[in-house]
């Protein structure tokens, strides 16, 4: 009791009062900044679907997607050549590629070929990380596109992409990536990407996943053969599906 | 009006110039040397970006798109946050022992951010677009945007604080600017950690570890920079004995360093242990690159031994009194911290993206060795920092007559007053 009374009698140092006032201001500012940080943690793109729900919800119309029937791929690389010619891809870059898996211990086929390209993710890490919205998810068709004039070349999107789908294009002065041939074909009324048209064994099936009459919808929705995506654990919610048969 | 401005500032500029010239030939030799390296670094960066093309001049690739230049940027801006935080303990939060550090620390915090900006400016392909589209087309979901913007604001606040610190009449305004500086620095630093932590495509970085680690690492870097630059400033540049209050401050910094190093060792141990069991295969593979692969020398010898264990023993042995031993510990820590940043940036990307898919093209770890252009840009950034330090010591007269010394006296009187009352 005596101690408390004696503490009350001690005059507060003006510096302490000043500091307390500053700390109050500081707390308010912290609130504003924390708000900003929280905003940066919440992706506004992530309004799509989880893989479990991919048969039910498609946030875009048309919701462009591709199914790759990988056991049909013969590594002829016609898709790669068509892509290079159509989109003027330089020799140091690529938009699509065919990976090879060694199956030498298998009884029949000794190699498996896996075509890869931008997965046009519904939760794209590249779009979240881009500081200037130079790369963005098209609100209509869901294609991850580039606005070259805004690209500062920080390359954080290359770093963020789980599918190695991006490279810096010197000629464009911006990052380049697969856009399902939107700029070169889809926007001009041609309804398939060049790689799909070039494939002789019908590996690549392209279409609107929100349209029940499309082949992609029917392949993704059939239950006889398994359908999967690459690197599912990343949680990017890709729109490139793989299957066999 | 212009004439009166000239009359007001010209004598100051003239006397500052004279102080620089009076530094002696060794001082001027180093000023010249760092100036030349700075120009070479800027030249190398401009050549890489606008003439040769970064694809040819820098060793970065599609697989490892950012490397030593980003690591250097991280090194400097994290140091800036640390300097700002440690110095703010005194002049913003009122811990008396840290008061004499204020002016030089704020100056160092400014020049380290600028060093970082210089290096990243020579790394980004289109720096001019950045100046425009960061403002007119911001992405509020991007940690990079927040980090860059907040560090930009931090420079402004710290510069205002630094100017105000020279005028005792504006002391309380300096504290407000200092407080804003601390808040923006910490938020920027945390978002820098977030740049890596939010990349769910990179399992080694992904998760809440790095934003927390970056704050801790910033404090350690700040302490190491303080021990390093205060020693150099007094022993080599100004050749003045330490004031007792400065010695007490450095002793307090050394104690803080010990605590932080201990925490860092625990942090690192748990990062290694948790990643080595049950984490995504790509994260475990990246860790094994660090602990038993091509980066194991960097990790065990440079990061752990040179950066943590030996400095801990040296600082403990110095008992906060032997400033030379503390300086040696600081040199080792700074050297180690640079490689720690490089290891973090490169190892996070060294495991190929389709590693777990088991395909031929992505079955081997990526490799990276810096190019001559990159090394020159890094040396340019380091030279800028050292040059600005050397010039700052003379231009601002060794940061003497800090109003903080008076505040400390004031505080001491207050405490004495309280004691009398009780």
Characteristic key phrases:
heterodimer, A: 245 residues, alpha+beta, 4-stranded mixed beta sheet, two-stranded antiparallel sheet, 7 helices, 10 strands, 18% strand, elongated, disordered N terminus, B: 422 residues, mainly alpha, Formate dehydrogenase/DMSO reductase fold, 77% helix, 0% strand, globular, disordered C terminus
Tally of contiguous helical segments of chain A: 7
Low-confidence stretches of chain B: 401-422
Q: Structural class, from helix and strand content of chain B?
A: mainly alpha
CATH superfamily of chain B: Formate dehydrogenase/DMSO reductase domain
Distance between the termini of chain A: 85 Å
CATH fold category name of chain B: Formate dehydrogenase/DMSO reductase fold
Largest β sheet strand count, sense and barrel closure of chain A: 4 strands, mixed
Helix coverage percent of chain B: over 70%
Overview of the structural elements:
The complex is a heterodimer of chains A (245) and B (422). Chain A has seven helices and ten strands. With 245 residues, chain A is an alpha+beta fold. In chain A, the strands form four sheets. In chain A, strands 8-1-10-9 form a four-stranded mixed sheet, covered by helices on one side. A two-stranded antiparallel ribbon of chain A has the order 2-3. A two-stranded antiparallel ribbon of chain A has the order 4-5. By secondary structure, chain B is an all-alpha fold. Helices cover 77% and strands 0% of the residues of chain B.
